[in-house]
Write a structure and sequence with these properties.
single chain, 483 residues, mainly alpha, Growth Hormone, Chain: A, 3 domains, globular, disordered C terminus, transmembrane helix
Length: 483
């Protein structure tokens, strides 16, 4: 049984990696897609946005449905949708077809990704093994974006169609493996009632929220009346959802999971941290391309230190650190190293050298994120009852996606505005671009600093969080029955 559990873990993480890769692999291919299909600059953004809106909007719903109908079933359904949508993306010959297929791909990705962490927690109830398994998943969830940049650079050399077509054999292989290895859990069932109003409210709130975040960066502006109206409507839907969940008999998202300060704090920290870190992954890519003149493949290779260091820490050492020192104590120095890395990036010059000005940042990010994200994932699932594990898994993935969308929109807008002002003042383009990137990196560092303060002020050791302790006992007992 032990060997099959670890085989199931690597299979689940393989599926998650395929989903995470697709969120960034397309970025390297955007110029080729634009040339081939004739996208405008604003229209091209929707190749990314369509995926983000569907993915971020459906994670919570998919996670809860996994609890009700069975997480294995939800995982397999998501794989089918994602793989089929990837095939449609690969053969897309028009702008409309590609954007529609990317939306469908995001929906399949949400169905697949939402239940992975919940399945891992159920398979590994013993704390040490669970910490190690979550470390493997955390590496995939956080470092997959860097791997996507490298893979995108390689595949785009062949054709942009390959960045989508490569998912077809991988998705089929993972699906066959899942049928053989994953335990066929029944789920809680739908007989007690399904929270349709809650599902409509939260899906609408998240989709509209992500849409509001990504739309201004390319088209409207943050203070435009339409942006403010959409944002207010998203918040109103979210408030209505919380009010409904507090009084309905069979809630889609039981509010009891927020009783634990660690669960609530970890998700808040994750939103802010991921938003800040996007400054390095997205704008760092542009700095190397536009200022240092790196080719796409070289940019992908430049991110290898992050991937290797994160993988080593997450897979080999995170469980030892979490078990010995606790998730909170492991998280705090990780956030501090990420903060220092972003601070160093604010000093990257126009005539920068990779080994002097970029490589040290990559090392700090690799170590910092390798410490921080496994700890955050452990905290986000700490004390969650087994019956709510899919919901908590979907919530953890949602906060990561919303944080990424928020960081991309805010930091890109700030960087672009500063660059535009500098160009208008007669500053040469490389210096103007670098000035914009510096501002974004500084704001990103500020966001990570906020996350660090929240971690110190809000998070507790599990023994100091009575709600987490009680729920954790329930989860361990239920997980034994699941296995």
């Amino acid at each position: 049984m032990g060997r099959s559990r670890w085989a199931a873990l690597y299979l689940l993480c393989g599926g998650a990696l395929m989903i995470v890769l697709d969120a960034t692999i397309v970025n390297v291919a955007l110029p080729a897609i634009q040339d081939d299909l004739g996208f405008s600059q604003a229209g091209l953004a929707w190749v990314v946005n369509a995926y983000l809106i569907a993915f971020g909007g459906l994670l919570l719903l998919a996670g809860r449905l996994g609890d009700l109908i069975g997480r294995r079933r939800m995982f397999l359904c998501g794989l089918v949708v994602f793989t089929g949508a990837s095939a449609l993306c690969g053969i897309a010959g028009s702008q409309a077809m590609l954007i529609a297929a990317r939306f469908l791909q995001g929906a399949g990705g949400a169905m697949t990704m939402a239940v992975v962490l919940g399945m891992i927690v159920a398979m590994f109830p013993e704390p040490r093994e669970q910490a190690r398994a979550i470390g493997v998943y955390a590496f995939v969830a956080s470092a997959g974006g860097a791997v996507g940049l490298l893979a995108g650079g390689v595949l785009t050399e062949l054709s942009w169609h390959w960045i989508f077509a490569i998912n077809i054999p991988i998705g089929i292989a993972i699906g066959i493996g899942a049928l053989r290895v994953l335990h066929n859990d029944k789920g809680a069932g739908l007989t007690d009632g399904t929270d349709v109003p809650g599902a409509v409210l939260i899906t609408g709130a998240l989709m509209l929220g992500v849409f509001t975040i990504v739309k201004p960066a390319a088209e409207l502006g943050w203070t435009a009346g339409r942006t403010l109206l959409l944002g207010a409507l998203a918040l109103a839907l979210l408030a209505a959802f919380v009010g409904w969940e507090a009084r309905t008999r069979h809630p889609l998202m039981p509010l009891r999971i927020f009783r634990s300060r660690n669960v609530s704090g970890a998700n808040l920290i994750q939103v802010v941290t991921v938003a800040g870190m996007f400054g390095m992954f997205f704008l760092g890519t542009l700095y190397m391309e536009k200022v240092l003149g790196f080719a796409p493949l070289r940019i992908g290779l430049a991110f290898l230190p992050v991937t290797v260091i994160m993988g080593t820490l997450s897979v080999r050492y995170s469980e030892r650190l979490v078990m010995r020192f606790g998730a909170r104590t492991t998280l705090i120095p990780g956030l501090l190293l990420v903060l220092i890395g972003l601070g160093l990036f604010t000093q990257a010059p126009v005539a920068g050298n990779y080994w002097v000005h970029v490589f040290p940042v990559m090392v700090l990010f690799g170590v910092g994120a390798g410490l921080a994200f496994p700890a955050l994932m452990n905290l986000a699932m700490s004390g969650v009852p087994a019956k709510d594990a899919g919901m908590a898994s979907g919530l953890a993935n949602t906060t990561m996606q919303v944080g990424g969308a928020l960081g991309l929109a805010v930091l890109a807008t700030l960087s672009g505005s500063r660059t535009k002002d500098q160009l208008a003042a007669g500053v040469p383009q490389p210096e103007a671009l670098t000035s914009g990137f510096h501002l974004a990196f500084a704001v990103g560092a500020g966001l990570v600093a906020v996350a660090l303060v929240v971690a110190i002020a809000v998070l507790r050791k599990p023994a100091d969080d009575p709600d987490a302790e009680l729920d954790g006992l329930e989860r361990e007992v239920t997980a034994v029955h699941i296995l």
